[in-house]
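We modelled the chain as a single entity of 88 amino acids. Its sequence is:
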Amino acid sequence: MGKVHVSKSQLIKDKTDKIEKIFGDLKEDSSLEGFIGMFKQNYPEDWNRIVKRYDEHKKLRKKGKNYPMPEPKKYLENIYNSYIDKKN
């Protein structure tokens, strides 16, 4: 029996466009919490895909090993921080 893997599809399709749109809509309130809330509201399918992929990783985790993917909110936090770093 072969090794079980998680799906390899892209988590967020058109990620750059979606992230830019969210930051454009946030304007003044570009906080992490605002970003996560807006992402979940505007892109529920993408949010569900992130959660599903995380759950797949979690099920396949070997005891004593870390997940290869961060928790869903941390995943979005990483995207948020990357965007902020690029803009500064």
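As a brief sanity check on the tokenised model: The radius of gyration is 15 Å. The chain has one domain: 15-87.
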